Amino acid sequence: MQEIAPFLDYLADSAPAAWLAGSADLRAAVTAVHALSATILVGAVVPFDLRLIGFWRSVPLADISRVLGRTVLVAFAVAFVTGFALFSQRPFAHSADPAFVAKIALIALAGLNGLLLRFVTAWRLLDQVDSRGTISRFRTAGCISLAAWLLVLAVMRWPQLL
User: Fold this and answer.
1) pLDDT (tens digit, 9 = 90+) per residue, 31-45?
2) Per the confidence metrics, is the pTM higher than 0.90?
3) Any idea of the CA torsion for 127, 130, 134, 135, to the nearest 10 degrees?
4) Can you spell out the DSSP letters for 19-62?
5) Which of 69, 81, 121, 134 is surrounded by the fewest CB atoms within 10 Å?
6) Is residue 15 within 8 Å of 116, Cβ to Cβ?
7) For 115-134, how does the pLDDT look when each residue is reduced to its tens digit (9 = 90+)?
8) Residue 44 in contact with residue 110, Cβ under 8 Å?
């Protein structure tokens, strides 16, 4: 952690950290927005991943991707910004917490998995083909994502699991 200590010091002394420290109402509002965006994120990820795995084959993957994919991106962006602001309140404590570190690693895994899925040729052709079926790479991506996000929830709800 010594390598990132200057960055953590910078965060602890940043304007967002000072604003949040100076207002319990602002901190509560940011926490509420973070929780709501995380809920929307996971709520959109689960059916999207289940569709990738092979559920609801009557729904074209291109259609569900268009709706839930954008929902996931917006919810993730809001959760990231609010989470980062909350992290700035106690950066040393959070970065020393194994549950928090596991949460960040699992979110990174889910994000990398989603990014790599975008490079699969079949994914780029979803609008041009009948996407009612699924391929093994889609199933694998859905399983990885579903497991990662469910583990994020488990680790944050029950940090003593680690």
Assistant:
1) 999 999 999 999 999
2) no
3) -80
4) HHHH-HHHHHHHHHHHHHHHHHHHHHHHHHHHHHHTS-TTS-HH
5) 121
6) no
7) 998 888 877 777 666 556 66
8) no
> 30 near 85, Cβ under 8 Å?
yes
Contact 1, 95 (CB under 8 A): yes
CA-CA distance, 126 to 139, in Å (whole number)? 15
Rounded to an integer, what distance in angstroms lies between the CA atom of residue 53 and that of residue 56? 9
Closest-CA residue to 19 (of 8, 28, 9): 28
What tokens does 133 get? 């079926």
DSSP string, 103-125: HHHHHHHHHHHHHHHTTSHHHHT
The rounded distance, in Å, linking the Cα atoms of 37 and 86 is 14
Contacts of 82 (CB under 8 A, 6+ apart): 30, 31, 33, 34, 37
Report the SS3 class of residue 138: helix
